Amino acid sequence: EVQLVESGGGLVEPGGSLRLSCAASGFTFSDFTMIWIRQTPGAGLAWVSSITSGGDYVDYAQSLKGRFTVSRDNARNAVYLQMNRLRGEDTGVYYCARGPRFGLNSFSPYWGPGILVSVSS
Amino acid sequence: EIVLTQSPGTLSLSPGERAALSCRASQAVSTAYFAWYQQKPGQAPRLLISGASNRAPNIPDRFGVSGSGTDFTLAIDGLEPEDFAVYYCQQSGDSPPTFGQGTRVEIK
After folding, report:
1. Mind listing the pLDDT tens digit for each residue in A37-92?
2. How far is the C-alpha of A46 from the C-alpha of A53, rounded, in Å?
3. Segment B56-69, tens digit of pLDDT
4. A105 part of contact set with chain B, CB < 8 Å
5. Chain B within 8 Å of A107 (Cβ-Cβ)?
6. CA angle, corner A11, sides to A109 and A13, nearest 5?
7. Among A9, A10, A75, A98, which is least packed by CB within 10 angstroms?
């Protein structure tokens, strides 16, 4: 059974940083692109970032480039999202999702339960 | 980026009725890269249908899709109590992938 579980969220002050993790199981992790999606009160569901199976190619939502960094550790079956210089509008639930075998993006049949990130002073 | 506009914002229906949810794209989208999700409170979105009419596992056949180009429709024939939720469309054929703002199907 495919399982994705996010961790690392919480309350952080504006300008602060958080590192989200997503632990994967139930499939050959190194075969699939992994995707981060967030759901915020202001923008609804929005794609954040994708990283290909080997980590060779990454992509980010234009508005997040320079602040967010995605990475993965195929030996640990985990994908990460480093979020810096956080703003109030980054508040929301962050999901990791399994992407395609090839390419950066597709629909996502498997999602984690999500983790809440709150940016507030 | 491709903007997806869903209508109506809220659909108030009774169990057993048919629901028709619309998603309009600002540019043509390949059907192969179009999908619909269902989300219930406190849960992650769940993939319902992708592509021309590929239902995800365990999705009943009362869920169906139609449309192409810029206009897509999700139909639910005979609403069951568990179908009252928020539904999102998504395109992943053009970068960045984008979602609609959602249609809430509520009990009338």
Report:
1. 999 998 999 999 999 999 999 999 999 999 999 999 999 999 999 999 999 999 99
2. 21
3. 989 999 999 999 99
4. yes
5. yes
6. 125
7. A75
